[in-house]
Amino acid sequence: MLIEAYITESFEDAIAFCTNNKVDVLISDLNIGTESGFDVIDAANKNPNNSELKSFICSAESPVEFKAKMKESKVYGWILKPVETNSFRKVLAKLLA
To answer: What is the C-alpha separation between 91 and 40, in angstroms, rounded?
Structure first.
C-alpha cells in the first residue's frame, strides 16, 4: 500500500492544502500558534472530496473539555502527547487498511 504524507509549514499552508486536495487522514496539533487545529479540520471537511476524512487532534491537553467541538468538527480521535510510535503506527495501519 502506498502512503503519501504531507507536512505543511504553516497554518495557512495547511488550510490551503486541505481545501484544495483530497485528504484521507489529517493529524493536527491542537494549538498552531494563535490558531486551532480544529480550524484546519473544519476547512478540510468543507472540501467535498474529503467526505471520508479521518481527523485527529494531537495535544498534551485532555480531550474532555473539547468533546463538543470534536463532535462538531467530526474529529475521529484524540492523540495524547507524548505519542508512542508503535501504537501510532498500528492505529494508522488499521485506518488505512
So the answer is: 21
